[in-house]
Each structure stands twice: as C-alpha cells, then as structure tokens.
Design a protein that fits this description.
With 514 residues, the chain is an alpha/beta fold. The chain has 23 helices and 10 strands.
Length: 514
C-alpha cells in the first residue's frame, strides 16, 4: 500500500518538487558542483522542514438569543434574522465569547477588546453590535435615524482587509428582507461604503471621470446579462456591488450632463466617493492612511460635519469605532494611529466617552498573563475613558471527551486505510468501502452509510469522542505540533524507527478523516 498521501508523504513530494524546480530553473554545468548542490538541497531544514500541524480551536456555543442580557428589540431582531433562509450571516446560535461581547457592549455599556483565535468569529463581535446599534436607533428614535451620518467607522491597516470586510456587509445589508426590517421602523435601510484609494473617483465629478465609471458599470451590466448564474454566485459570496446598477447608470448619465448628484436611498452600498460626500453612509470602511487624508481635505469635510451635527442633536447618539487587527497598531505606527483617533474625536466634537470602541485581534492578550497589558494598550490607543471601561473577551473552548493514546491494534487498523481511495470515495464509493470495512471492523465503528453523501456525517459521529482523535485534536488545537510529536503522543508504544513509521501513518489518516 502506498503512503504518499500521508502528511510526511505530501511533505516529501513538496520538497522534491521544489528541489526539481530549483535545479531546472538554475542549472549548473559542472557535475561536481551539481552533485554538491543536490546533496545540500536534500539536507534537512535547507529548503523545507518537517511538517507542523495546527487546528483551529472549537469554541463553546451559547444559548438562544432570548436568554441573553441584551435589549428586547435586539433579541427579536437577531432571532428574526437568524431564521432567514437563505441566511444573511446571522447565526441561530453564537459562540459564548460572541454572546459575552454582545452583553458587555449593550448590557454593561463597555468597550471591547476581543482576543480570540483565527476563525473564531471575531468579525461577528463587532458586526452584531453595529447591526443592533443601528436597529435600536431606528426603532427607538426614528427621527434621529433619518439624519445622515457615519455611525460606525471600521478601520483597517490595509486595503486588502477592507475589501474582505465588504463581502460581509454586502451579504447582510443588501438583502431585501433586512432592508424591509429597517424600513418597517424607520422608513429607510442601512447604507455602507468603502472609502479607499480604490473608490471611484478622486476629486470633483468631471465628465471624463464619470465616463470612466460608466464604462465600468456597463461591464457589470453586460456580465449580469450574459452570465446571470455567475453573477448570482458572486452576490451570494458578497462579491457584487450592492446597488441597483441600472439606476446608478442613469444617475451617472445625469451627473455627466448636469453635474447633479443623485443617491438612490434604496441602495445598500454607496459605491462612489461623491455619493458618500453627499450622503454619509451609516457604516464607513476605510484604512488609517485614507482616514488621514479625509480629515484634512475640504472635499470630505461634509462627511464629518454631518456626523458632528447628528452627534450634537442627541446626547444618546454615540460614534462607534472598530479597530480590526488591532495588533498592527504597535510602535511608531500605533502612536500615529492613536493621534489620528484623537484628531477624529476632535473633528466630531465629542468626548472619549461618546465614542464606543471595539478592538479585535488574534494575538493581543493571547497569553494568560497578558489581559492587563491588552487593556492598557487599548486605552492608550483610543484614549482614557471616564465613565466606562474596557472588557477583555477571550474564547471559551468547547468541552470535549478526554483523549487517550491509541492501542497497537488501533494503530494497525488505521494503517489499513487506503488514503488514495479515501480521497476519492465520492467517485468510487463501493471500492472505497471494500477497504474501509477492514478499518472500521477493527476499530469497532458502526456500519457506514449506503450513500457517500452521508459519509461525512458518519465520520463526524465516529471521530467525536474517539479517544485517539481527541488526543490529537487537543494537542494541536491552537498549537503547531510536528507530526513526529503527534505520533509519539498518539502511540508511545510504537516503534518510531519502523519503515514506514506506523504511528505517523495512523496520525495522518486520523487527521485526513477529520
């Protein structure tokens, strides 16, 4: 049986491919030098190292929204949105740390520092507070919600992160059902916009600039006409502009003729700079370099003036600042951003306590003894609070069954798995089952399903609570471990010098099935 699809086998193939590329791309005519180079490239830790494996931690789930300490209107909103099908990015059940963030923000009126791992749902810890802050204002004070202003500013260190965030906003706020929920209470929907160097177009709306933007919109419309299925998939993934592009094209034509700016109030996304200068979006996504320019240039003055007027019109109105990837704001760049935030606060004419802040990071305060340092960092970056405090939010790992080492019989059974057939089981399920029956009988697992569509669920049920798998998962959850270390923990009694090493193959096959 071949073991080229084990972790070590894949690492070996990658090493060989890289070595072959280097030797082909950079040939050496001298045979002696070529031989020495080949020996060097084959040496450990020269062009590759042994593989390390790390798994995303699984976090504990919370209870229903009705049991959370959040406003009643928020409970109704979140329950309603989570029941929509197809979904809009609001889940029926949150992780516990997402619940803590919601409760700290609304019930305890605290600012937040969220320090959970990659893939833990950090984005929801600020997306949901933004959503609910907007809805509470719309329901409780619709006269205030009718005023145009930037209510939430999501600040990123670079454009790539800005673009990624836009996909989440489009999926949620472009949905007609979400728009209708806001129109029911305040007669208008939420609008958002990305304001970066990529946002068309800089300066005043001259005809030549309008024509260039028209060309782009025509390309979108042509794609929508010729490839509707592709466009539908792009909309589902949040990759399509959340606008009525036909009406936007008409407004651009009118703008080119009369210089008259028209903003469609039913659009979820404001796409051009002049739209946002005329009608500030409720949610503005940008990076700190662009924010620097926006606070200086006269052309963006209207955005901050209208926001300032909204803040002055009601003391209950607060400005929400989101600093995602906050660990990027350390050292000199951190000092610059800290001063930038204070300039923004001065421009808006509000004390620090009327600016709510949420900082998220996968690395700030990641160690057990760094919580206090993270809170000090957050306060230095955003300013000292007089009437509130920061709340530090950390993920709560899911409770799992205890792990145990694998027996030699279990290692032997896992070694019987044909990895190539497993990877292709959906194409030839019967052939795969012939091999898998030997494995599952030795492991005393249940009979596999007749259809390959049900096989992933079957594997999940067999692996959850299976001691050797739980041992591996616990060791690599949030920590990178070498395959040798994983194998030695999985089966201390196996011979590490055997060829091939049976414990490493067993570990590889367990991870492959997961």
């Amino acid at each position: 049986m071949e073991y080229r699809y084990t972790i070590k086998g894949v690492a070996t193939q990658l090493h060989r491919k890289l070595r072959e590329y280097l030797e082909t791309q950079y040939p050496i005519s001298n045979p002696e030098l070529q031989e020495k180079r080949t020996l060097l490239l084959n040496s450990p830790r020269v062009i590759s190292s042994e593989p390390f494996i790390e798994a995303t931690p699984i976090y504990e789930k919370s209870g229903p929204y009705e049991e959370m300490s959040i406003p009643d209107a928020s409970k109704r909103l979140m329950t309603r949105l989570s029941s929509l099908s197809p979904g809009v990015g609001v889940f029926p059940q949150l992780y516990v740390h997402q619940q803590w963030a919601m409760e700290a923000f609304f019930h305890h009126a605290q600012d937040l520092v969220v320090a959970t791992g990659t893939g833990s749902g950090k984005t929801e810890t600020f997306m949901y507070p933004i959503l609910n802050s907007l809805y509470l204002e719309a329901e409780e004070r619709p006269n205030q919600f009718s005023k145009r202003a930037v209510r939430a500013l999501i600040l990123y260190p670079m454009n790539a992160l800005v673009s990624d965030q836009m996909t989440r906003l489009r999926r949620l706020y472009r949905d007609e059902r979400v728009k209708q929920i806001f129109r029911e209470v305040a007669e208008r929907n939420v609008q958002f916009g990305m304001y970066t160097s990529r946002t068309p177009f800089a300066g005043s709306p001259k005809k030549s600039k309008v024509d260039r933007l028209l060309k782009v919109i025509n390309e979108y419309l042509e794609l929508e006409e010729k490839h509707p299925n592709t466009v539908s998939q792009m909309k589902e993934r949040g990759k399509w502009i959340a606008k009525d592009l036909v009406r936007f094209k008409e407004s651009l034509i009118e703008l080119g003729k009369t210089n008259q700016i028209t903003v469609n109030p039913y659009d979820a996304e404001l796409y051009a700079r002049y739209e946002m200068q005329c009608t500030p979006p409720d949610i503005l996504v940008t990076n700190y370099s662009m924010l620097e320019y926006m606070l200086i240039r006269p052309i963006e003055r209207s955005i901050w003036q209208m926001t300032r007027e909204w803040l002055q019109s009601d003391e209950r109105n607060t400005f929400l600042l989101i600093l995602d990837e906050a660990h990027m704001y350390r050292g000199t760049s951190g000092a610059e951003v800290a001063y930038l935030i204070r300039r923004l606060q001065s421009r808006l004419g509000i004390p620090r306590d009327r600016m709510r802040c949420i900082l998220t990071s996968a690395s700030i305060g990641s160690k057990d003894n760094e919580e206090e340092k993270a809170l000090i960092f957050a306060e230095k970056l955003t300013g000292k609070l007089a009437q509130r405090s920061f709340k530090f939010i950390k993920g709560k790992p899911e409770k799992r069954s205890p792990g145990r080492a694998a027996s030699l019989q279990e290692v032997e059974a896992l070694n019987l798995l044909d990895s190539e057939k497993f990877l292709n089981y959906s194409k030839s399920y019967e052939s795969f089952l012939d091999n898998f029956q030997k494995v599952r009988l030795k492991l005393n697992w249940a009979e596999p399903p007749a259809s390959y569509n049900d096989f992933p669920r079957y594997l999940y049920e067999q692996l959850r609570g299976f001691g050797p798998f739980e041992l591996i998962f616990q060791s690599i959850s949030g920590h990178a471990r070498s395959i040798k270390e994983i194998a030695s923990n999985l089966c201390p009694d196996s011979d590490p010098n055997s060829d091939p090493p049976s414990a490493e193959i067993a570990a590889s096959h367990l991870l492959m099935m997961a």
